[in-house]
Design brief:
It contains 3 helices and 5 strands, in the order H-E-E-E-E-E-H-H. With about 210 residues, the chain is an alpha+beta fold. It has one domain. Strand 2 and strand 3 form a beta hairpin. The radius of gyration is 23 Å and the shape is elongated.
């Protein structure tokens, strides 16, 4: 019995030491982990800003617009705003085109205050390699055709792929995926144009 009791105390002491070490490690690294996660998120958002000049952190002015709204996706619409000298510089919409060929396509759409596209950056998709995956800037320059465009450039009726009489390129061998993307971008721009003040006035500039 004495041997069992002694072994139990030894195991309990080892467990206590291990628990203390884990807690200490977590305490020492939690801020670094949080900082790294924030830096990664900032890097993933930045490509959709293109050449926009801003002097605030991308994560400093995040808002959620509750339903009902016309931004493609489900649930509240997430928007990151950036400012320059206290003035709005761009809004980054998290958009989900739900009718992609292989499933939903989640992407960022950067829009300047005058409604011009700053950039498009795909975050998640399940499109076929060599076909629909050309929507990603890592694979092709297809997303670049939207920079500098707006509702009116072209007119809203021409916001479609060329197969549908629109102005935007599709992908070789794939039309469903780019069609879904163009439609989602068009709907988001129309929403922004109708709700510009709401997007930027929900809180003051950081």
């Amino acid at each position: 019995m004495a041997t069992i009791f002694k072994s139990g105390l030894t195991l309990a002491a080892i467990a206590a030491v291990c628990t203390s070490l884990v807690a200490l490690t977590w305490t020492l690294t939690q801020q670094r982990i949080a900082d790294n996660q924030q830096a990664y998120l900032e890097r993933s958002l930045q490509p959709a800003l293109g050449d926009v000049a801003y002097d605030t952190g991308i994560l400093d002015a995040r808002i959620e617009i509750p339903q009902p709204h016309e931004v493609p996706g489900s649930g509240a619409a997430v928007v990151y705003r950036v400012y320059n000298n206290g003035e709005p510089a761009a809004a980054l919409f998290v958009v989900t085109a739900r009718d992609g060929y292989a499933g939903p396509i989640k992407f960022l759409l950067g829009v300047t205050p005058d409604g011009t596209v700053a950039g498009v950056h795909v975050l998640e998709h399940r499109e076929t390699p060599g076909l629909g995956d050309g929507i990603s800037a890592d694979v092709s320059d297809w997303p670049l055709q939207f920079r500098g465009r707006a509702i009116g450039n072209p007119v809203v009726e021409r916001w479609g792929i060329k197969d549908d009489g629109g102005e935007f390129d599709q992908l070789t061998g794939a039309s469903v995926t780019p069609r879904a993307m163009v439609k989602a971008i068009r709907k988001t721009l129309l929403y922004f144009n109708s709700n510009r003040d709401l997007v930027f006035a929900r809180e003051t500039a950081p």
